[in-house]
């Protein structure tokens, strides 16, 4: 095993990504030059407003929104998801109290839905997911009723990287009474998203997943969707989200969007990540490591940057600890549940609560700063650790 470098190899980009020099510079420039209150009409406010609207335009373009004003800038994915769940329930409950989602959504979706079920009399249908991390579209069709007011299905799963058939889902939901929301926090900047072609009504994103700053994201809200603000106060964001606009972070988010979307970068990144993932699989095989992949391993059903691996007979908590000591940062599931003693609800949904995969799997998620050398380092460390950890039991 190679000697640990000064800086660990970072392979948990699904948890968060590092800001890069370009986004840091954009943040710094906006803090110096666009520090005014964008809701005021004075000189400094007008400069800030222009920076904010330029950023909003790039956000809208990145998902092919019909109008820039369909973008509501928020504090990130959790706020956007919570806004969709709670405010759709409040705005549309007279039309029905049924919502459809999947069993392996992010907690920012599942926990508000549990609250609606427990305390407000809503009924939620949780669609099954198979071992490839995919839903049965017929089950979705069968679950839709006249009382269904919302279908919320993620674009990409945050733990296993499965890419859901968003276009097909949109085609199904558009002919119903329901709004279609997708939590695109993991898919945004990784897979192509077109809200018009995919018939998406509502969409959530977060900047820190694409090398932007934390605590900023946006909620796409199709024109005509009447969704009251979750955050009450002033009339910012066209009365759709109260609170003084975070202009510097919006500018940094916009720069991150340029880095990921312009000059065919989405495709270039995908090709790079697939090459790195194949390198990892080949390296594990060459070292005779006993493993299987969780979920599919093809471009149609999986996002390019994430993979989840079952290392048979090796507890993920022990492996993560030893990887960290060896200078490799990875994850066993969602960063939002890293302190939880509960098994991954994603792997439970896919394989059942009694499957050894639930406690013996590792998530590797790549980012724009990763290299082939990082994967070589990971393979080297795993080849050293896996036999020791298996023998320890």
Automatic annotation (TrEMBL):
Keyword presence, Iron-sulfur: yes
GO MF term set: cysteine desulfurase activity; iron-sulfur cluster binding; metal ion binding
Tagged with keyword Iron-sulfur: yes
Keywords from the UniProt entry: Iron, Iron-sulfur, Metal-binding, Pyridoxal phosphate, Transferase
Span of domain Aminotransferase class V: 9-378
Catalyses which reaction(s): (sulfur carrier)-H + L-cysteine = (sulfur carrier)-SH + L-alanine
Cofactor(s), by name: pyridoxal 5'-phosphate
UniProt family annotation: Belongs to the class-V pyridoxal-phosphate-dependent aminotransferase family. NifS/IscS subfamily.
Name of the protein described by the UniProt record: Cysteine desulfurase NifS
Species in which this protein is naturally found: Limosilactobacillus secaliphilus
